[in-house]
Amino acid sequence: MTKHEFLNRLRTALSALPQDEVQKTIDYYAEIIDDAVEDGCEEPIVIANLGSIDSIAEKIIHDTPIQEFTLENIKQHNWNTTAVLLLILGSPVWIALLLAATAVVFSLYVSVWAIAFSLFATTAALALSGVILLITSPFLLSVAVPKAMLLLGIALVSVGAAIFLFYLSVYYAKQLVRLTGFIRQKIRHFFLKQGGASDEIQ
């Protein structure tokens, strides 16, 4: 692959980003290739060592704030004065709806994380109570053997339940982190598709 082909494909892969950001990236990789060629490296080898275009584009897009996609989409739609005026006049309605929807989503998100914190808190309580019972039960052996054995059994059950809940809590928290990343990627892909659709229309 030549430098020209590489840069053109990279530009296409980054088409949803603001044009100034795309140009900065193109200039950056063009300079890397030129410097390596000047040092005696062959152009195809330099380009191959840069990695795949998809992986480069994915990393750049992932590191770009979501606001950049939003602003770029607004620019690409070329909203006229009437559209802006209608948007402003309707702002009391759509802002209220947007805030309500955001509050609902945020409360749901906080709720699922609250479950994770509750699981960890329960795990800590069970572990602590189990350890305390394990420490105190031997002192009752000389006084009341049945009670001491009962406390020892409760202690072992508490510790076992704490271990089980710990692994369950960790698994649950990992799934929430993955869900957060999935939602974030979906939002990015939405704006990417919107940007791609705008490019096709133009």
Description:
The chain is mainly α and 202 residues long. The protein has two domains: 3-64, no CATH class; 96-201. The chain has eight helices and no strands. The chain has helices spanning 3-13, 19-38, 43-49, 53-63, 66-77, 81-89, 91-136, 145-201. Helix 1 packs antiparallel against helix 2 and helix 1 crosses helix 4. It is elongated, with a radius of gyration of 29 Å.
Note the main attributes of this structure.
mainly alpha; disordered C terminus; elongated; 2 domains; 202 residues
Strand content: under 5%
Q: How many DSSP E strands?
A: 0
Q: Counting H and I runs of at least 4 residues, what is the number of helices?
A: 8
Rg calc: 29 Å
What would you call the structural class? mainly alpha
Quaternary class: single chain
The arrangement of helices and strands along the chain is: HHHHHHHH
Which consecutive residue ranges, at least 5 long each, have pLDDT under 50? 74-80, 195-202
